[in-house]
Design a protein that fits this description.
This protein has about 170 residues and is α/β, with parallel strands linked by helices. Helices cover about 50% and strands about 15% of the residues. It has a single domain, classed as Rossmann fold, CATH 3.40.50.
Length: about 170
Protein backbone atom coordinates (compact mmCIF):
# COMPACT_ATOMS: atom_id res chain seq x y z
CA UNK A 1 0.00 0.00 0.00
CA UNK A 2 1.32 3.42 -0.84
CA UNK A 3 1.39 6.13 1.78
CA UNK A 4 1.44 9.83 2.26
CA UNK A 5 3.79 11.16 4.89
CA UNK A 6 2.66 14.54 6.20
CA UNK A 7 5.11 16.85 7.95
CA UNK A 8 3.20 19.63 9.68
CA UNK A 9 3.71 22.25 12.34
CA UNK A 10 3.96 25.97 12.70
CA UNK A 11 6.62 28.11 10.97
CA UNK A 12 9.99 27.58 12.61
CA UNK A 13 9.11 24.15 14.00
CA UNK A 14 11.67 22.29 11.85
CA UNK A 15 9.36 20.51 9.44
CA UNK A 16 11.17 21.52 6.22
CA UNK A 17 14.57 20.47 7.54
CA UNK A 18 13.29 17.11 8.74
CA UNK A 19 11.12 16.40 5.68
CA UNK A 20 14.10 17.07 3.42
CA UNK A 21 16.40 14.78 5.40
CA UNK A 22 13.84 11.96 5.59
CA UNK A 23 13.13 12.34 1.86
CA UNK A 24 16.83 11.91 1.07
CA UNK A 25 17.38 8.99 3.43
CA UNK A 26 14.26 7.07 2.35
CA UNK A 27 14.38 8.06 -1.33
CA UNK A 28 10.78 9.35 -1.27
CA UNK A 29 9.87 12.47 -3.23
CA UNK A 30 8.91 15.44 -1.05
CA UNK A 31 6.63 18.29 -2.04
CA UNK A 32 7.31 21.41 0.04
CA UNK A 33 4.59 24.06 0.11
CA UNK A 34 7.22 26.80 0.21
CA UNK A 35 8.88 25.50 -2.97
CA UNK A 36 5.52 25.42 -4.76
CA UNK A 37 4.67 28.90 -3.48
CA UNK A 38 7.99 30.42 -4.60
CA UNK A 39 7.52 29.10 -8.12
CA UNK A 40 3.89 30.20 -8.37
CA UNK A 41 4.82 33.61 -6.99
CA UNK A 42 7.37 34.01 -9.77
CA UNK A 43 5.03 32.77 -12.50
CA UNK A 44 2.11 34.92 -11.31
CA UNK A 45 4.13 38.04 -10.44
CA UNK A 46 2.74 38.29 -6.91
CA UNK A 47 3.24 41.81 -5.60
CA UNK A 48 1.43 42.21 -2.29
CA UNK A 49 0.91 40.43 1.00
CA UNK A 50 -2.63 39.66 -0.18
CA UNK A 51 -1.19 38.09 -3.36
CA UNK A 52 1.18 36.08 -1.16
CA UNK A 53 -1.70 34.74 0.93
CA UNK A 54 -3.74 33.79 -2.14
CA UNK A 55 -0.74 32.10 -3.74
CA UNK A 56 -0.05 30.28 -0.45
CA UNK A 57 -3.64 28.99 -0.32
CA UNK A 58 -3.45 27.71 -3.89
CA UNK A 59 0.01 26.26 -3.28
CA UNK A 60 -1.42 23.98 -0.60
CA UNK A 61 -4.32 22.99 -2.86
CA UNK A 62 -1.87 22.13 -5.65
CA UNK A 63 0.44 20.24 -3.28
CA UNK A 64 -2.48 18.11 -2.01
CA UNK A 65 -3.71 17.44 -5.57
CA UNK A 66 -0.23 16.34 -6.66
CA UNK A 67 0.08 14.09 -3.60
CA UNK A 68 -3.29 12.56 -4.44
CA UNK A 69 -2.11 11.90 -8.01
CA UNK A 70 1.09 10.28 -6.72
CA UNK A 71 -0.84 7.96 -4.41
CA UNK A 72 -3.26 7.01 -7.21
CA UNK A 73 -0.16 6.00 -9.18
CA UNK A 74 1.03 3.80 -6.30
CA UNK A 75 3.83 6.09 -5.19
CA UNK A 76 4.78 7.02 -1.63
CA UNK A 77 5.08 10.76 -1.16
CA UNK A 78 6.06 13.24 1.52
CA UNK A 79 4.22 16.55 1.78
CA UNK A 80 5.27 19.41 4.04
CA UNK A 81 3.44 22.55 5.14
CA UNK A 82 1.81 24.03 8.22
CA UNK A 83 -1.48 22.27 7.29
CA UNK A 84 -3.27 24.24 9.98
CA UNK A 85 -6.55 24.84 8.16
CA UNK A 86 -9.69 22.70 8.66
CA UNK A 87 -9.85 22.03 4.89
CA UNK A 88 -6.48 20.28 5.13
CA UNK A 89 -7.73 18.01 7.90
CA UNK A 90 -10.82 17.16 5.79
CA UNK A 91 -8.60 16.07 2.91
CA UNK A 92 -6.48 13.88 5.16
CA UNK A 93 -9.63 12.33 6.69
CA UNK A 94 -10.80 11.58 3.13
CA UNK A 95 -7.53 9.79 2.39
CA UNK A 96 -7.82 7.71 5.57
CA UNK A 97 -11.45 6.86 4.71
CA UNK A 98 -10.27 5.72 1.25
CA UNK A 99 -7.86 3.32 2.98
CA UNK A 100 -4.71 5.32 2.33
CA UNK A 101 -1.82 4.95 4.76
CA UNK A 102 -1.53 8.48 6.18
CA UNK A 103 1.40 9.10 8.53
CA UNK A 104 1.57 12.48 10.24
CA UNK A 105 4.68 13.93 11.84
CA UNK A 106 3.74 16.94 13.95
CA UNK A 107 6.85 19.07 14.49
CA UNK A 108 6.94 21.10 17.68
CA UNK A 109 9.44 23.15 19.58
CA UNK A 110 9.08 25.64 22.43
CA UNK A 111 7.83 29.09 21.41
CA UNK A 112 11.08 30.89 22.20
CA UNK A 113 13.13 28.60 19.93
CA UNK A 114 10.46 28.63 17.21
CA UNK A 115 10.45 32.43 17.22
CA UNK A 116 14.27 32.52 17.08
CA UNK A 117 14.23 30.21 14.04
CA UNK A 118 11.39 32.14 12.39
CA UNK A 119 13.05 35.56 12.59
CA UNK A 120 16.58 34.37 11.76
CA UNK A 121 15.93 32.44 8.56
CA UNK A 122 16.19 33.99 5.11
CA UNK A 123 12.84 34.70 3.49
CA UNK A 124 11.93 34.67 -0.19
CA UNK A 125 10.17 37.78 -1.51
CA UNK A 126 7.00 35.70 -1.91
CA UNK A 127 6.53 35.89 1.86
CA UNK A 128 6.65 39.65 2.35
CA UNK A 129 8.66 39.03 5.51
CA UNK A 130 8.54 42.59 6.84
CA UNK A 131 4.73 42.57 6.62
CA UNK A 132 4.25 39.22 8.34
CA UNK A 133 4.10 38.66 12.05
CA UNK A 134 5.00 35.69 14.20
CA UNK A 135 1.88 33.82 15.26
CA UNK A 136 1.10 31.66 18.25
CA UNK A 137 0.19 27.99 18.27
CA UNK A 138 -3.62 27.99 18.11
CA UNK A 139 -4.29 25.00 15.84
CA UNK A 140 -5.03 21.60 17.39
CA UNK A 141 -2.83 19.17 15.46
CA UNK A 142 -4.55 16.39 17.42
CA UNK A 143 -7.31 16.71 14.79
CA UNK A 144 -5.00 15.27 12.14
CA UNK A 145 -6.10 11.73 11.20
CA UNK A 146 -3.91 8.72 10.62
CA UNK A 147 -0.95 7.51 12.60
CA UNK A 148 0.77 10.42 14.35
CA UNK A 149 4.19 11.12 15.73
CA UNK A 150 4.50 14.20 17.95
CA UNK A 151 8.11 15.25 17.63
CA UNK A 152 10.13 17.68 19.72
CA UNK A 153 12.43 19.24 17.11
CA UNK A 154 14.77 20.70 19.73
CA UNK A 155 16.51 17.31 19.72
CA UNK A 156 19.49 16.73 17.39
CA UNK A 157 18.44 16.24 13.76
CA UNK A 158 19.99 12.77 13.52
CA UNK A 159 18.05 11.59 16.56
CA UNK A 160 14.82 13.06 15.17
CA UNK A 161 15.30 11.49 11.72
CA UNK A 162 16.01 8.09 13.31
CA UNK A 163 12.78 8.37 15.33
CA UNK A 164 10.79 9.35 12.22
CA UNK A 165 12.17 6.49 10.10
CA UNK A 166 11.37 4.02 12.87
CA UNK A 167 7.81 5.42 13.02
CA UNK A 168 7.43 5.10 9.25
CA UNK A 169 8.67 1.51 9.12
Amino acid sequence: MNRVIVFCGLPGSGKTTLATEVSCQMNIFCLHKDAVKKRLHGYLNGMSLDDSRKIGFHSIRLLIALADDAMKNGTDIIIESTFNHPDNVEQFVKWVTEGRDVRVIVCRVDEEERKRRFVSRPRHEAYHGTERTFFEDIFDYGLMPGKKLLLDTAKPIGESVEKIIKFLN
